[in-house]
């Protein structure tokens, strides 16, 4: 088990993983995760083949361990059209170059937790995704019982968009997972708050136009009715005058 004591004032540096990290990387994964990873995963992680990664080291550690991993994050670029969250994105499906960054693993050894290392590692991934013009979001899965991780990603402004039943199968048992998404480069969900505001604004405009039209029509009707009423009164008065003249035996010229 990797259980090194953290320095009183550690000097944390972040860098890409290297081939020399593979042994420590495997041990930390074994200590932290219930899932066992293939050797190919670690080889790809430290060599940059299909996986991008960052490691954290404590430069103030003694005994020649100043470049030994104390934390890491691994991720992969995937096509948006091939991802499981395609329906959670508002993007142009006709563009085949649009991508996502999928976080594979994130871990910090126990003695170095609560120092902001995990936060810095995730920020590296977000910065990386944001630097890719075609990238729409960074996303990941969290096993349903991992409350600290769920709280952490919510604090990092990731959105929990879906619960996947039986996503993990560990030691003969199925576990649900939560899907978290962090949108970058203008990417957003099909029903984002911006879309809701735009829809409400359009409805208000439409309602306002309808009210104005109805008021205008009512005014026009009232004007016509007023004219008709005046004409009716005039005719009635004239008829009365004619009748009165006739009754007196006089003619009106």
Task: Give your account of this protein's structure.
This protein is α+β, with helices and mostly antiparallel strands. The protein has two domains: 179 residues, Aminopeptidase (3-Layer(aba) Sandwich), CATH 3.40.630.30; 33 residues. 39% of the residues lie in helices and 25% in strands. It is built from five helices and seven strands; from the N terminus they run E-H-H-E-E-E-H-E-H-E-E-H. A seven-stranded mixed β-sheet has the order 1-2-3-4-5-7-6, sandwiched between helices. The N and C termini lie far apart (123 Å). It holds the Pfam family Acetyltransf_1. InterPro entries: Acyl_CoA_acyltransferase, GNAT_dom, NAA60-like. GO terms for molecular function: histone acetyltransferase activity; protein N-terminal-methionine acetyltransferase activity. Keywords: Acyltransferase, Chromatin regulator, Chromosome partition, Transferase.
Describe what is shown at a glance.
With 253 residues, the chain is of the alpha+beta class.
The helix-strand sequence is: EHHEEEHEHEEH
CATH topology of the largest domain: the name is: Aminopeptidase
Average per-residue pLDDT, rounded, comes to: 81
Sheet/helix structural class = alpha+beta
As residue ranges, the low-confidence spans are 194-200, 231-253
Biggest beta sheet summary? 7 strands, mixed
| CATH architectural designation of the largest domain | 3-Layer(aba) Sandwich
| Helix segment tally | 5
Count of domain modules = 2
Number of strands: 7
Q: What characteristic shape results from the CA principal axes?
A: elongated
GO molecular function, one term: protein N-terminal-methionine acetyltransferase activity
EC number: 2.3.1.259, 2.3.1.48
Pfam family, one: Acetyltransf_1
Keywords: Acyltransferase, Chromatin regulator, Chromosome partition, Transferase
